[in-house]
């Protein structure tokens, strides 16, 4: 988490740093700060809370200089106060950091022996103190930074700025992403290409352990051993970096509304007629004995849904795990296993660590990612883009449906390769899938009914979500969406589990949202719903028109959706789940795009 940026510009850099930080705010928004070097002297401005507070401060206390670094923070060590805000400074160096320095206590103790005391509670300040200590011992800036880098354990993307050096930023990457941007007579560093998009589309991604000496003339890159290395410069597609709200009130609203379009585009990217074309080098499903799917949060729920598809359609055994559990459990990963990692950002620390655990153990490492240049994509044998476009809202919406889309296409491909799906069935299913963007539009048209239900739900303290079969992971996703942006406590259960305990929670104050298309399990879910209503529970049923009719009387709220092939229902039913959360958050007046305590990209474990 946290976003960092650095600019060696031709003009004043403060506005450029702020613009880049605006684009990085999805990585954290507890505080923000910038530092520049001007007339040989380092200076900085920092403000608690969102970037707008820093912008206000800069109006009253501008910061001059053509070289600078900036930071937007998601607090790990130390409360989100101004004192703990980056850039941190010690002596003649300023630093911004994304990640966690795990050995900062040992380093602090060592520096204390030299009489150096920290002023903040952060791990990052220790890095500045260490570099400063080496500067004081007589090392020049690059050598001081390089020596300090060799002492750091943990994960970091770092950028250093020095007193007296107006044409130098030292940048380093280990465990957290970092991009270098090339301009004409200007150079940039940033946590991602999106941050640098207004300034350049020429990007070099640092690799694990790399560090760079950046001047206006270019960047010299070194690997962890200190050997000079060449890293490719790439052109980043600008359509992947557009981050405006396009007239919507929130990014989340825009991203929900984009789903018919992005799904159609994503299908277009994978389908040639009825052939599902994977990017090179593809995947031979006839040789796969077992799939291991690993992810976090919403992406994990996409994996749980995919388990139903792979097992039902292709008869491949599937294990699904949360990355933070998987990585430390040391699970056996045997030959014949394909390990598949799903991540919108492609930078989630736990998912990346799980991927690295599987590398060399699994037959193949595959990933389903939105950010095609991300570390997870780069470290996979096969990276499958979801083509969702930039997702800014912290609550994942279009990325979820686009992840489901790619996972379903993979399952269909696997079913076909393993002789489990005849050409006619495949063709019919793909036709249904192509029709799905139209059904998405119809679901979005139910916005009024959903907003009405959401307003009532927003008055509750606790909400339950129920679903069976493929609707169970969707219930989990619905509950996650609601809690993360409206702060309403929400839990999800497989409908059949209700009477094994959770039914004790039911009373008239707890809305129960039931996601139940009229599929093979519908009658069973209806019985569970009756059990809820018999105990005074208020049911909000999301189903198709006939499902709502067949469910009978006593339903508190109903949200009718178009009929849909039951295998595709998880994609369609995601939309009302997202809209319910969105409208509940609006009703509660919470910060939809930047909910408290969260960040879009979780690059620390
Ligand atoms: O970038 P990733 O898909 O790896 O992120 C995983 C989770 O952090 C993410 O899905 C998170 O749960 C979202 N806030 C959910 O809306």
How would you characterize this protein structure?
The mean pLDDT is 94. Helices cover 37% and strands 24% of the residues. The longest helix is centred in the last third of the chain and has 22 residues, at 423-444. The protein has 3 domains: 3-238, 4-Layer Sandwich (Glutamine Phosphoribosylpyrophosphate, subunit 1, domain 1); 247-421, Glucose-6-phosphate isomerase like protein, domain 1 (Rossmann fold, 3-Layer(aba) Sandwich), CATH 3.40.50.10490; 446-592, Glucose-6-phosphate isomerase like protein, domain 1 (Rossmann fold, 3-Layer(aba) Sandwich), CATH 3.40.50.10490. It starts with a strand and ends in a 17-residue tail after the last helix. β2 and β3 form a beta hairpin. α13 packs antiparallel against α19 (569-588). The strands form 5 sheets. The protein has an 8-stranded antiparallel sheet with strand order 3-2-4-1-10-9-11-15. Strands 5-6-7-8-12-13-14 form a 7-stranded antiparallel sheet. A 5-stranded parallel sheet has the order 19-18-20-21-22, sandwiched between helices. It is of the alpha/beta class. The chain has 19 helices and 27 strands. 5-amino-5-deoxy-1-O-phosphono-D-mannitol binds at residues 296-299, 343-345, 348, 351, 394-396, 480, 484, 601-602.
